[in-house]
Design goal:
Chain B: Belongs to the ETF-QO/FixC family. The complex is a heterodimer. By secondary structure, chain A is an alpha/beta fold. Chain A has 6 helices and 13 strands. In chain B, the strands form 2 sheets. In chain B, strands 3, 4, 5, 6, 11, 12, 13, 14 and 15 form a 9-stranded mixed sheet that branches. In chain B, strands 1, 2, 7, 8, 9, 10, 16 and 17 form an 8-stranded mixed sheet that branches. Chain B is globular. The mean pLDDT of chain B is 89. Classes of the chains: A alpha/beta, B alpha/beta. The interface between A and B is medium-sized, with 10 and 16 residues.
């Protein structure tokens, strides 16, 4: 029976969020908090593997108390248990401090039941770094497998997992020992419309909530702002692309106009010598 | 078979939440289903919440609920194209506990209200659409949702699915509503600095004002407009019978733009920024449009049962009261182990003998009457404006003469008779 832990995060919906033009930071009040979209795929993959091999899916997140909502979303997807670590001492954490705190939570979860596999989303849509997953793997001293877009096999008895890792021009097939950590692409699966019994379970579910004091062997200096060496020197919104041209008319007209434009600028598309 | 509840409430608006709250409080196992992302996300109303009916469910709710402002002033504007006759009442007794009514933003308020039902033990499931009632042997026994394994069962299903109530319609409880039975309301939430609102509307902190707009606000079409003060925004909207919009070939958003640009309204909203745009149908057919509201294993409440008092812009309070009565009936039915139409009819009888039913009957002809005689809105309100203008313009004419002139402006003897008759008729339908 597998025990899979999915690491998730509640993030502001960056599709909607407004930037504060003065400080160039995200005004988090302007956007609803959602489950990080990549993480939904991580949870879905964990649920599929559980359904295939049997076992348990636990989700873990670090965040403020409202992050319970994101955990409930994971229960809707099909997770069995949820753990929220929340404490003011976690606040202001960068990816280094976050991976430390989440690792401490996973260590505690694995005391309840040993963990075979950890699955993370590729990255969060508010930070875009993709560093927390590998950070956790490093701290737990287990192999990190990033950019996973297919899990071929997980074999607990033989202690191995076989996955596909996405590359620029294809994929590679990788075998790893267990436990290991996967960070997954969105293309790995589609998250279906959750069945009604899951919705009922989620509506009633109360996650386990832990503070720093509930975790073991924690070095307070490595938590939150204190444990975060990252310095943000500048943040800016990318400039909106300008120019462009909209071709109008019938399909025939548009094709002809497009062709004319492309021919006119053909040197842009020609391969440069020696490249 | 999937889980069975004592009761399933479809729709988390004021009616559904009230019902679920009271059922859970009474110890029933209740499931509240909502199609939106959260309760309130799809709900719309102008924004006046009445204290009394809300307090019947959550006493002293105003101490913790996310309200905008207690209303201390209610104004009524009879508008012509470039003028308005205004009257109203402002009283400081409304500025302190227990207050009279409040402006609210539904997205915030409904979410809070639903959380109170959950605290009582109701199970709330969002983002789930009920497709149909499951009927067995002529009795509603559950609902089928749009989710996989989506059937869920209960002794009673309460339909609080709002104005169109496709569920009640598919049970044959009512026909599809006609354009003269529903109003289409369009509204906008305009962001404006708190201090500016208080200055413009002559308010102090934590005081609110409502202005109801008649006449030219709806270009003479039967309907009303409104302008309400929230904490740091204004709610402005217009609602007219759908048939009126069709007849005059006016699009609802054009009407809203017209009101926003009206010289009587423009100064209030100047410099504000559009935050939200909402539109919704309001059931205004009244008593005569009400269909069947009770069946075997099923009860219809709130807008779904056409419970709106259009004359007094009351809806949410009727909805809440109907939800509460439904819950009380279901708790009785649960005790008796009888969920037949006969037993559940206690709900209908209580509703109809209480203020809800009495008000519905009192105004049963109002919408139909004013719809049949458009002159109230497109003739008499301009006439009133003209009379006021003449009376208050100081131009050397004596007041006697002015009164004479106003009297003669009311038209020929025959026209005056018609006016008198219309006033009497209007009095009769609302008296």
């Amino acid at each position: 029976m597998l025990h899979i832990v999915a690491c998730i995060k509640q993030v502001p919906d960056t599709k909607i969020i407004k930037m504060n033009p003065k400080t160039n930071t995200m005004d988090r009040r302007t956007a609803p908090a959602i489950l990080n979209p990549y993480d939904a795929h991580a949870v879905e993959e964990a649920v599929r593997l559980r359904d295939k091999y049997g076992g348990t899916v636990s989700v873990v997140t670090m965040g403020p108390p409202p992050a319970v909502k994101a955990i409930k979303k994971c229960i809707e997807i099909g997770a069995d248990e949820g753990y929220l670590i929340t404490d003011r001492r976690f606040a202001g954490a960068d990816t280094l401090a976050t991976s430390y705190a989440v690792t401490k939570a996973i260590e505690k979860i694995s005391k309840i039941k040993p963990v075979d596999l950890i699955i993370c989303g590729k990255m969060t849509i508010d930070g875009d770094t993709g560093q927390v997953g590998p950070g956790i793997a490093r701290r737990l001293d287990i192999p990190p497998l990033t950019s996973v877009n297919k899990v071929v096999e997980v074999n607990r008895e033989e202690g191995k997992a076989i996955v596909h890792r996405k590359l620029e021009d294809g994929y590679e097939v990788v075998q790893s020992s267990l436990p290991c950590l996967l960070s997954v692409e969105k293309t790995i699966n589609e998250v279906p419309y959750s069945p009604f019994p899951n919705m009922l379970k989620a509506a009633r579910y109360q996650p386990h909530i832990w503070s720093v004091d509930d975790l073991e062997d924690v070095d307070i200096k490595q938590l939150g702002l204190k444990g975060s060496p990252t310095i943000v020197s500048k943040v800016w919104a990318p400039p909106k692309p300008e120019g462009g041209e909209i071709l109008e008319g019938s399909s025939q007209d548009q094709v002809e106009k497009l062709l004319a434009v492309l021919l006119e600028k053909k040197e842009l598309f020609q391969a440069k010598e020696g490249v | 078979m999937s889980e069975k509840f004592d009761c399933i409430v479809v729709g988390a608006g004021p009616a559904g939440i009230s019902c679920a709250h009271e059922l859970a409080k009474g110890g029933a196992k209740v499931l509240l289903l909502e199609r939106g992302e959260y309760p309130g996300s799809k709900n719309v109303m102008g924004g006046v919440l009445y204290r009394k009916m809300m307090e019947d469910i959550v006493p002293e709710f105003y101490k913790e609920a996310p309200l905008e402002r207690p209303v201390v002033e209610q104004r009524f504007m009879m508008m012509d194209k470039e003028s308005a006759v205004t009257f109203g009442y402002k009283g400081m007794e409304w500025a302190k506990e227990p207050y009279n009514n409040f402006t609210v933003l539904r997205a915030k308020f409904d979410q809070w209200f639903a959380s109170k039902a959950v605290e009582q033990g109701a199970v709330l499931v969002n983002e789930t659409v009920v497709l149909e009632c499951i009927v067995e042997d002529g009795k509603v026994v559950g609902v089928k949702t749009d989710r996989p394994n989506g059937e869920v069962y209960a002794d009673v299903v309460v339909l609080a699915d709002g104005v169109n109530s496709l569920l009640a319609q598919s049970l044959g409880f009512h026909k599809e509503y006609q354009p003269d039975e529903v109003a289409l309301a369009t509204m906008e939430v305009l962001k404006l600095d708190k201090k500016i609102i208080e200055d413009r509307f002559n308010l102090e902190e934590n005081q609110g004002c409502t202005i109801e707009l008649f006449g030219d606000a709806t270009k003479g079409i039967l309907g009303t407009g409104f302008l309400y003060t929230n904490k740091d925004s204004l709610s402005i909207g217009v609602g007219t019978l759908l048939s009126g919009l069709i007849k005059h070939k006016i699009k609802p958003y054009e009407l809203l733009e017209y009101v926003k640009n009206h010289p009587m309204i423009r100064p209030y909203i100047q410099g504000s920024e559009s935050q939200e745009y909402l539109a919704h149908l309001i059931p205004e057919g009244g008593f005569k449009s009400m269909g069947k509201i009770v069946g075997n294993g099923v009860i219809v409440i709130g807008d779904a049962s056409q419970l709106v008092n259009a004359i007094h812009r009351e809806g949410s309070n009727l909805a809440m009261t109907s939800g509460r009565y439904a819950a009380e009936t279901i708790l009785l039915a649960k005790q008796a182990g009888d969920f037949s139409e006969n037993m559940l009819d206690t709900y209908r009888m209580r509703l109809m003998s209480g203020f809800v039913g009495q008000d519905m009957q009192k105004y049963k002809d109002s919408t139909h009457h004013f719809n049949k005689f458009p002159q109230y809105f497109d003739e008499y309100i301009p006439m009133l404006n003209k009379a006021a203008s003449q009376m208050f313009t100081v131009d050397g004419m004596s007041k006697w003469e002015k009164q004479k002139k106003i009297w003669s402006d009311l038209g020929t003897g025959k026209e005056k008779m018609k006016l008198a008759r219309d006033m009497y008729r209007a009095w009769k339908v609302i008296k």
